[in-house]
Specification:
Length: about 300
Amino acid sequence: MKGLVLKSTGSWYEVLGDNDRSYTCRTRGKLRLKGFKTTNPIAVGDYVVFSLDEEVEGQGVIDEILPRENYIIRKSVKLKSQGHIIASNIDQAILIVTLAYPRTSLGFIDRFLVTAESFRIPQVLIFNKIDLLDGDARHYLAEIRSLYENIGIQCLEVSALTETGIEDVKDLLKGKKSLISGHSGVGKSTLINKIAPEINQKTGEVSDYAEKGIHTTTFAEMFRIGQDTFIIDTPGIKELGIIDIDKEELSDYFPEMRALQPECKFHNCTHTHEPKCAVKDAVDEGEIAESRYMSYLSILEGDDNRR
Ligand SMILES: Nc1nc2c(ncn2[C@@H]2O[C@H](COP(=O)(O)OP(=O)(O)OP(=O)(O)O)[C@@H](O)[C@H]2O)c(=O)[nH]1
Ligand SMILES: [Zn+2]
């Protein structure tokens, strides 16, 4: 039977079968996708083929992993060629952002976008807590929103508290596998609770566990919140802000810079000190946002700015 891996503990997996039933599955011996060296052979979001256990109802054995459309991997610090796959086959990476209470920095937003872009996952920004914004703050939000819309990022404005825009979020999620991320305090739990109250319990358990300081391995979990609709909320996903991208490649993941790259004099231009750089010219002319260029430089310099 074909199925979707919803949960991984490292030793067993929860697999949602084609028949809409959930199975507890193990693997048979070594299971590996060609060309992959990971600490976890099977990840949340993987489509697998599994056989049912003839003796025990509700159990099965995974025989095969189907090729992944994309995946988020955290590379091992020691062994660059190895890594831990956080999730696979993601349709969109959503970052919940607040411009106040607390303020999410543009640098953090850009790191998130670049990381998702490097994994070939489309990105969406959800601006939460808009009920708290006064005139000036709303003006600032409009400015930031258009900055990101101009580079092709979908943006939504919501208030999880007053439920403004909640229907738009439901529409956004429908029929997709979405990864939802955000700093502590931006209202991620509140928002998820409004959309899918049934999973709130589990979300709470994860943070309690983490708070007690118990070593938590970062195994993601995918929650089904409707027909073909899933969200992933993982204790390790905050680290999606940390990227491991070669310096020469970095501007490929800034869509507005990628578009100008062919116009730079040097094909391997880093857009820093080189003459006749189309990217620097665009920044000077205001066609590329200053904040985006600053984020680019800061990532290039290797600042581990997670906030
Ligand atoms: N005014 C206002 N407050 C909100 C909104 N959404 C969430 N909050 C409040 O913001 C605080 C943080 O919300 P949480 O949902 O706990 O935030 P979180 O992102 O899940 O944070 P962690 O649980 O630390 O990961 C709570 O006091 C919420 O009531 C909103 O749209 N407007
Ligand atoms: Zn250049």
